[in-house]
Structures are given as structure tokens and as C-alpha cells.
Fold:
Amino acid sequence: MIGQIGEYFRTSLDRWTGMLTAHVAVSLLALVIAAAIAVPAGVLCVRHERLKKPLTGLFGALRVVPSLAILLLMLPVLGTGTAPAAVALVLLAVPPILMNTVAGLESVPESVLETAAAMGMEEGQIWRKARLPLALPLVLTGLKTAAVEIVASATLAAKIGAGGLGELIFTGIGLFRTDLLLIGGGSVAMLSLLTGLLFDLLDKLLLRYKTA
Amino acid sequence: MNAVTFQNVSKRFKGAGRSALENVSFTVEEGEFVTVLGPSGCGKTTLLKLINRLYEPDSGQILLFGEDTQGVDLVKVRRGIGYVIQQIGLFPHWTVAENVATVPKLLKWDRDRIRARTDELLRLVGLEPEEYKNRYPSQLSGGQQQRVGLARALAVDPKIMLMDEPFGALDSITRGKLQQELLALHRETGKTFLFVTHDIEEAFLLGGRVLILDGGKIAQFDTPEAIIRRPAEGFVRSLVESAREKGRFWEAYL
Structure:
């Protein structure tokens, strides 16, 4: 088995790197789009209490739909390839980022916001200098959760022709090739772990005041 | 000159059964140290927050150094008022020096001036700049944090300081020390101080005059001596009585 795995990397390293790159690319794309939607939406939820229930409710409901189902439901709308896969992954990733952004913004102590206002900070300055940076730890937690989920679920994207490491796994299943299954599964697992570690590192770098 | 003037000010919060403040009028002269005393819910915090317009009055007029607070630019008014609260409200993600420099930075002072002022303020509140300025609030004790809060409020030399139970969460030894330092600070700077507390000893120790609030109305506003000698009937009398009781309790152990 180990011999087979070694053989695969000797002969097909290019193919493997290609799939890895595709996997990372679609994951990154989905994460960036999800963050671009969820963080501003979180800010809106906190600024306008009326929007909170409908917005979090909508994305919460979408999240209940299994990602494989979303992927397949996207087929007739967006066809095959990266686009429908990215859309499905975005839908999956928005809720954790949104919820954590809201929780982070609401966790900022009232006393901090009050003294900020009392010192003559304008509304925009309070947000930029205090509220957003203080919400960052939880926003990062949301991003981490989302990123790990995206990396894992991007495996399924291969089903609709978006490539990625899922291809290897599905090929392995089709051909009863345990070595391919191990390489594919192992690669995705490593990628997930690495993503988690990356965010932990980011957390440490950006939020030194918490551990100082 | 009058630092603060309240003219028939009333404030009722939405959904509240009665007014937080009802037709309150008083004046505080420039340079006075006035303590505002009363039980929780008497309206003392409301009174303070009406001055820097964290709350808006329903009716009446509030003058700050002769100017109607409604008439002037909100942000400008607030930058001229020092504000210190019990929860302190330091920015946890900023160092001590950055916290102290909050308002100077808003006013775009140059860097050297900010650094010099920060060091000066930290020394003024008894914190050695070299040791403390690069720390984060979480690395300080409660008393030290409140010293930073005080330094931050004093940063651009406001003419008036509003303080809402600033020492309420501190142990009694730290509290006693900070009370004495605050009195010294008041003597040295000649600023107007409005200090809210529910602690009668603190109110009488610090205040040149004590404004006693009960149920949103002024029960008595006079010097500590006058209040102790001639307490107004009802609430003030029972308040002074309770303090005497406490005194007798300690005397029993002498």
C-alpha cells in the first residue's frame, strides 16, 4: 500500500498539485465571497435591530440544507464547474461568519462604547476604532469555522465538475483503489488542519493584547 | 461664572413608571467640587449623562459655562468634558499610552506633544510612564485601570470633570487613597468636578457641596456641614441617621 502511494506521487505529482491548487482556489474564493457578504451583513444586523431576525434566520435556514443537496440543486441553475460549487460553499460559510460577527459586535462592553461617545468620538470613529477591532476575535473564530467547513465540503464539489481533491476520492471509490482514497482523504484532512492552524496563528498575531 | 446650570430639567425614559428627573433646577459654580448623592434609581446618573448629552432632556434647559448644550456641536462639547465611570471603559486593545492619548489623537496633536502629555498625565495619576505606558489594561489592577481612566479624561485639560461612581468597584484602601488624590487634583487644577456616588461618606468627604437626589427630585443641596446640622425632613434625615448608626457601630469596638 505504501509502495502504491509512493508510486502515485512519483508518477502523478503534477496531477495531485493541480487538484490541490484547484481545491485551495475554490475554497479561498468561497471564503472571501462569504466574508464579503457576512461581515457587512453582521454590521447591518447590529446597526438595525429589525434586520437581525430575518437575516440570521434566512442564512440559518439555508444552512440546514445539506451541502451535497445545494451542490446538486445549483446544477440546473449554474451548470457545472467552479461557479456553482463556489455558490454552494458560500451559502455554507455565511452563517458561521454572520453569527460570530453579530456576537462579536454585541460582546463589546457598553462601557467602552459609552466612554468612546462621551470623549467625543463620532459614530464612524467608534465603529472603526473600537467596535470592529474588538469584534475581530469572534469574527476570526467565525472565519475559521467557515474555512474548515469549506475545505471539507469542497471535496463534494468534484461531483459537479469543479475539480479539487474530491476527484481523487471519487476516482478511488469508482476504481476500488484504496491508495487513491487514502491520498485524497489524507490530503483534505491535512488541508483542514493546516487551515485551522493558519487561523490560530492569525489570531495570535492580530490579537496580542489578549495574551499580553 | 456658572459651570453648570439646570433649569426645570425633566427626563422620563420610555416605559418607565415615573420620571428619572422631575423639574430639577440648580447651579454649580466654576471650580466647585459637587458630589451627587442618592440611592440607585434616584436619577443621579441620568443627571450626569444629561450634561454630556448621552441622554437628552424631555424639557428644560442645561447650560454649560453659560452655553445651552443643545445649541453647540455635540462632539465639540464632549471633547471639552472629562468623563470617568465605574466600569472605566478603557479600550482593551490599546495600550495605556494609547488609551490616555485617545482625545489628543482625535484632535490630531503631533506625536511629540502627545507623548509628552501622556507621560505627564501618567505621572500626575501616580503611574510611572516607563513602567506602565506599554501595558494593556488587562495587565493592570482595578485601581491602576481607574488611574488610567482618570488620566485619559484629563488629557486635553477639560474645564469640567463628570465622574460616575469612579471608585465604586475598588477595595476600600485603594478607594481611600484615590479619594485623597482626587481632592489634591481638584485643589491643584481648580477644575469643576461633578461626582456621583451612593456612598454618603464619600459624598461628604469629597464634596464642597452635596446635591442629594431622591426619586428624581433634589432633596437638599448644601455644604456637608449644613446638611449634617440641618438635614431636610424625610429622606435626608434618615440618610444622615443611617450614617450616624454606622459610626456608632465602629465606635463600639474602640
The beta strands of chain B are 2-11, 21-29, 33-37, 59-64, 67-68, 81-85, 160-164, 192-197, 209-214, 217-222. DSSP finds eleven helices and ten strands in chain B. Chain B has two domains: 2-80+159-251, 90-157.
